[in-house]
Design goal:
about 350 residues; 5,6-Dimethylbenzimidazole Phosphoribosyltransferase, Chain: A, domain 1; 6-stranded parallel beta sheet; alpha/beta
Length: about 350
C-alpha cells in the first residue's frame, strides 16, 4: 500500500510541475523567421514547428540536440481472444529483435540520429537479460480487459511512475527531444477501447484491423471491446481508472513519459495509434500536456484520426503507415531538426543584403 501511495504522490507532483508552454518565445521565433531570406510564412508548418519547440523549451533560440525514442513493450490479456493476426509470443520476440538492432525502428532511429531506449514493461514470458533492454516489469502481461479491469489502479500508477522516471533521467542527460513508441500484441484493441471510453464514440468508429486481422478477427475485436466497456463501465472523467480498466502497461508507461517530459519542458513526438492514445491519457490527466505534443504521422488505423482530433493535433506526415514501434516519430524528428536549423542557420535579409519586400 505504501508503494502505491508513493507512486500516486509522484504522479501528482509531476503534474503540478507542468507549465503552459511559452507563447512569448513562440512569437519571438516567428518574428525571427520573418526576417529570414524568404517570403513571410513560406515555410508553412516548418515555421509553426520551430515556434512550438521554442514555446516548449521556453527559449527563442532552440537548437537541435540529442534525440531519444522510448519504445515500451508489454503483453495484453485480451490477445487470448484472437484479436491479433500474430501470437502473443511475438512481443517478446520483437524485444529480442530491438536488442539486436534489426527492427524497423532500429533502422529509422539510426537514420534520424536518435538513440533508442527499449523497456520491457511486462511481456508475458520474460526474455533473457538483453543488453539494451530495460526491465521494468509490472506483471507478466495485463488481464483480459473483456472480462474486467486489465490492471489494478496501483499497477497503472506504477507504470506511469516508471515512464516519469525515464523522462526525468533523459532530461538530466541533456536530451532535448523524446519520441514515443510501443510494442504489444493486442494493444490496438486496448487503444480502441480507451478511445471509445474517452470520446464516447461506439467501438466500430474507433477500431481497425490492427496487425492485419481479417474481417472475422475484426468482429472478435469489436466484441471484446464491447464486452470490456460493459464489464468495466469506465468513467472518462476518471482518467486513471479508465486507463487501469482498459489499458496496458506500455501505454501507461508512455503516458508517464509524456507527463515527465512535459514537466521538464521537453517536446514529445508521438507515433501512431497506441502511442497517441497514451498521449491522450496524459492529456486527460493534465490538459497542459497538449502543448508539448508533436504528432508525427496519421496512421491508417481509423481510431488514430479520432485520437488526433481529440488532441487537436495535425500530423506532420501521412504515409499510410501502421507499424508502430516509434517509426513515425523517428521520421518526424528529421523535420523538427530541419525547422530548428532554418531558425538557427538561415541568413536574414540584413545579413545577406537582400531587399525585404515585406518590410
Amino acid at each position: 500500500m505504501s508503494a502505491t501511495i508513493l507512486t500516486e504522490q509522484t504522479v501528482e507532483q509531476t503534474i503540478s510541475e507542468i507549465e503552459e508552454i511559452d507563447a512569448t518565445a513562440a512569437r519571438a521565433v516567428q518574428l525571427a523567421l520573418d526576417r529570414k531570406t524568404k517570403p513571410r510564412r513560406s515555410l508553412g508548418r516548418l515555421e509553426d514547428l520551430a515556434c512550438q519547440i521554442a514555446a516548449i523549451r521556453r527559449t527563442a533560440t532552440p537548437a537541435p540536440g540529442e534525440k531519444v525514442i522510448v519504445v515500451m513493450a508489454a503483453d495484453h490479456g485480451v490477445a487470448e481472444e484472437g484479436v491479433s493476426a500474430y501470437p502473443a509470443e511475438v512481443t517478446a520476440q520483437m524485444l529480442l529483435n530491438f536488442a539486436r538492432g534489426g527492427a524497423a525502428i532500429n533502422v529509422l532511429a539510426r537514420h534520424a540520429g536518435a538513440r533508442l531506449v527499449v523497456v520491457d514493461m511486462g511481456v508475458r514470458v520474460p526474455p533473457p537479460d538483453l543488453e539494451g533492454v530495460r526491465s521494468v516489469r509490472i506483471a507478466p502481461g495485463t488481464r483480459n480487459l473483456a472480462n474486467g479491469p486489465a490492471m489494478t489502479r496501483g499497477q497503472a500508477l506504477a507504470s506511469l511512475d516508471a515512464g516519469i522516471a525515464i523522462a526525468r533521467e533523459l532530461a538530466q542527460e541533456g536530451v532535448t527531444l523524446i519520441g514515443l513508441g510501443e510494442m504489444g500484441i493486442g494493444n490496438t484493441t486496448a487503444a480502441s477501447a480507451l478511445t471509445a471510453a474517452f470520446t464516447g464514440l461506439p467501438p466500430e468508429e474507433v477500431t481497425g484491423h490492427g496487425t492485419g486481422v481479417d474481417q472475422a478477427g475484426l468482429m472478435r475485436k469489436l466484441a471484446c471491446i464491447r464486452r470490456g466497456l460493459a464489464a468495466n463501465r469506465p468513467e472518462p472523467q476518471d482518467a486513471l481508472g479508465t486507463l487501469a480498466a482498459l489499458g496496458g502497461f506500455e501505454l501507461a508507461g508512455l503516458a508517464g513519459v509524456a507527463l515527465g517530459a512535459a514537466a521538464r519542458r521537453l517536446p514529445v513526438v508521438l507515433d501512431g495509434f497506441p502511442a497517441s492514445v497514451a498521449a491522450l491519457v496524459a492529456v486527460r490527466l493534465c490538459p497542459r500536456v497538449q502543448g508539448y505534443l508533436v504528432p508525427s504521422h496519421r496512421s491508417v488505423e481509423v481510431g488514430h484520426r479520432v485520437v488526433l482530433q481529440a488532441l487537436g493535433a495535425r500530423p506532420l506526415l501521412d504515409l499510410d503507415c501502421r507499424l508502430g514501434e516509434g517509426s513515425g516519430a523517428a521520421l518526424a524528428m528529421g523535420l523538427v531538426d530541419a525547422a530548428l536549423k532554418v531558425l538557427g542557420e538561415m541568413a536574414t535579409f540584413d545579413t545577406a543584403g537582400v531587399s525585404d519586400a515585406g518590410a
